[in-house]
Amino acid sequence: MNIQSRIKIQTLVFSMFVLFVSWIIGYMTLTDEFEKSSNKHFEVVLDSAYNMLESEIKQEQKSLKYKLDKMLNSDDLTKAIIKKDKNKVDLLLDKSYSKMVSLDRFIENIIIYSKDGKPIYSKNENKTSIKNSNIKKEFCSGFKIDNSMITYRIAKPIFDKNKHIGFIEIAVSSQKIMRNLNLYLDIKTGIVINNKLPANKIELLNASDMLKYYFESSESEDFKFFKVNMQKRLLNYSNETVAYLVVGYDMFDIVNKNQEFIHHLFWIGVIVVILIIFIIYIGFNSLLKYTTIQESTDKLTGLNNRDSLNNDLSKGESNILILTNIKEFSLLNQYYGLEVANEVLKQVAIGFKDFAMLHNMKIYRTSADEYVLLSDDNRLGVVECGDILEELNSKISSMDIIVGKNNETLKVEIYSGVSFNGKLLLEEAQVALREAKIKALHYLAYTQNLDNKVDTKIILDIKKTIKQAVENKNVIPFFQPITNEYGEFIKYEALVRIIEYEDAEEKILYPDQFLPIAIRSGLYVGLAKEMLFRSLTFFKDRDEKISVNFLPNDFYNHEIMDRFIGLVQMYKKPERIVIEITEQEGVGDFDRLFKIVKKMRKLGVMIAIDDFGSGYANYIHILQLKPDYLKIDGSLIKNILTDKDSQILVKSITRFAGYMKIKTIAEYVENEEIFELLKTYGVDEFQGYYFGRPLNLISGPNIF
């Protein structure tokens, strides 16, 4: 064995030793971190359970107060209580009680006491006097244990002409408060009277079978990963602890997945170490080649990515480019969620890959739901390409895409734009694709006249109008009020308008008339900067909040962001500024948007997601962004009085927002009936013509 061979072997052995030791240390560290992560996850579950418990108690307290107020709205009942006429009280309350129980099966009892604490009326329990004087002349709430049953109660004093004559108490089963904790958080709950006793001696109330079995057999291997906490106190009228909330959470799936992951990772790591050693031994050429391939590959589908397409286009060898887009993919993503949407993209990619191989084309995935086919076959003309597009459309639309645990079958359709023999193949295909969408065609080929379908003179006139409006300060924000549940103006949304004058008459241009042209022609930045300046300076010294709209791409423009940050610094309370993130053909790079939103929060401004319920604003993104407001999409509000689906969706959104401590805003509130219905759903703020149209507050009182 020569010296060179020995050096190689020694280097290999040493590298193996270093890598294996490093891997073992990393493996042990990762195991410890997973255990810490599991404990932290349980703490998050506990916090969620406690927050939801407090929310349920407040909601129940509000409901019970309403029931008591409605019951006490009777002069006959007041007179009967003053006279301590139990028969009269029984007669008046029995019917009300029966009706109340028929509507709410969790109501356990109603008791009326005289001012000295002696019961006058009680439906379902012994008429014992209340000894605690604290509840005689003030509102009280709390838990109470009777005969191994725990109820939540509120007591409210009764007055007649400012004279205290007694008080009324209503009790509901604690099961009503606990049921949503089990339903929404996937936990097991119960109530224990004394959490200091040994596990096999404590008395459990309203507990699930799993919790009962846990305390009976807590040493069993079945509960190795079952965590229980009994620290949350349940208080009575005197703020004394009468019981504790028991929260049980099965960590088996989480721990098991972590362990499986670690074991798999260990063996994968061993293989990776061997591969790395092999790479070290033979050199770094293979690693460099692998890295190059990875940089040009879409990680989700395994197809070539946008960088690879740009590289191939730069060679100038291709003469046909087909750009396709999945119809209404954002709605599919919204309805089914990210996991199903990704599965659709992967299966559609397989269909494109098979098609590309059949026709000797290259296939790329360039963005969320866009695919590109590229060919350098000079024999393909317009007719042949039309046949290929028909075949492509037929293949993709006939695919049975199997998704989800229930193996649901989905179908998708595509739009396609094709360009030939140009230096700007991709840009021309994008124009053709856009026109295909507008015309609802399966595919469309680019021609030089394609961009001239809209009257060129109108476009040029509008571009001229935009330039003059920015120069002459005729970009005017109109402000539409946003109210609270009492109809009080608490906020305004700034809506862009352009005012121009024809023959001394004022004419107003609305966003749909000029905004798309401004974006396409490069005039949008000046428009946005002027809009921000006029809106934020006008509201600088006012008390109301001001809401301004941002397109996702605005966050990536230095001019717009510099102007905005400078204006925010004028505000003593930057939390009076609300950024509404509006949709612009979906958000292609959500991670980038998320990082910028985090920076915006550091400025102190508040974040709102506009048009929630459509487009990119799905629940997964909301969980990451944690905005301050959700503006419910107007399409759900307009027909909410008659559309059951809209009612279900709005209730779901408000409930989700409530748990996330996010305020909701409803647009398109056109009348009192919609306003009153939305209040019952828990919507926090309201906007629409019922409260006011957008106003030109800067230049005058005109309403548009």
Describe, in plain words, how this protein is organized in 3D.
The structure is a single chain. With 704 residues, the chain is α/β, with parallel strands linked by helices. The protein is built from 21 helices and 25 strands. The strands form five sheets. Strands 17, 18, 19, 20, 21, 22, 23, 24 and 25 form a nine-stranded mixed β-sheet that branches. Strands 2-1-5-4-3 form a five-stranded antiparallel β-sheet. It has a five-stranded mixed β-sheet with strand order 11-12-10-15-16, with helices on both faces. It is globular, with a radius of gyration of 34 Å. Residues 1-5 have low confidence and may be disordered.
Number of domains: 5
Distance between the termini: 93 Å
Can you give the helix content as a percent range?
40-55%
Tell me the strand percentage band. Answer: 15-25%
Mean pLDDT score, rounded?
82
Shape: globular
Estimated structural class: alpha/beta
CATH class of the largest domain: Alpha Beta
Give the CATH superfamily of the largest domain: EAL domain
Q: Tell me about the largest β-sheet.
A: 9 strands, mixed
How many E strands? 25
How much is the radius of gyration in Å?
A: 34 Å
CATH architecture of the largest domain: Alpha-Beta Barrel
In the CATH scheme, what's the topology name of the largest domain? TIM Barrel
Low-confidence stretches: 1-5
Number of helices: 21
